[in-house]
User: Fold this.
Amino acid sequence: MIITRAPFRVSFCGGGSDIPSFYEKYGGCVLSTTIRKYVYLTIHKSFLKDEITLKYSKTEVVTDPDKIEHRIFRQVFKDFGTTGVEVTSMADIPAGTGLGSSSAFTVALLKAMYTYNERFASTYKIAKEACDVEINQLGNPIGKQDQFASAFGGLRYYEFQPDGFVKIEPIVMRRESFRKLEDSIMMFYTGALHDANKILKEQSHNLASENSKINATKTLCEMTRELKKSFEANDIDALGDSLAHSWEIKKSLASGISSPLIDDAYERGIKAGASGGKLLGAGGGGFLLFYVPDEDKKKKVRLALHDLIEMPVELDNSGVSIIFTNSL
Assistant:
């Protein structure tokens, strides 16, 4: 048996610039971190050598990979040609919550499949192939930040170059600054799931044709580079203004990104003392992120958002990894 895990990500700034219709012309960049919430995949040799058993929100048993209903499972099993296995998927957080769960699943699955088949794949190769599976083979209108963030883990700056190469840099700061960042992040679940593909499809179209959306995304990139400089200068409080400004820009990029429910929760958090915040992921639902460095203001934010589920945040540095293996 082999067990792999891949972390969920929290994007601070630059989301949208990782979509091909933008970065292939202008280049893009994102600053994000992963958190200690994970997707887990187990893979084990099955009793019947021609059978594939998949267990996720449902159970599938097939002998032909083309008959697999789960799109990512189907594509990866077709690519590898692996049979005679049982694979189980589970996660700490539901899908559709804006934390990159689909890409974390793909990354963890590729790591498991390469390991099971005794083939080496670098972290970069796994991230790149996860992008290929989701974007090119399955045609999802998504970007590349989630796959790379989940594969590499940690607090990092990603630069998406027009030729497709992704440059990855860790954010270096003092230990006390890192602790302050971790202690100042608050996340609240709005209770609304979202269809990222629908929103991102519109956003991708807008970034290919509308100058106002293109210029707004260029501004996000400039803000991302400035936030990187601020973090590296140990100015963690710069995150508050960055989140607030990027959220206003993000809402302008496509319809359906926000909603009255989300706007109400966001305003309550800001009025209670958060210096900035944003909705994570493509939009429409999921988690609200706030930056609240003051302990008294944290209590006020919790009180203001008492009707939402707060999720404690711990930052992850591991990326995709094998957490258990024994002889096959």
User: Anything to note?
Assistant: The chain is about 40% helix and 25% strand.
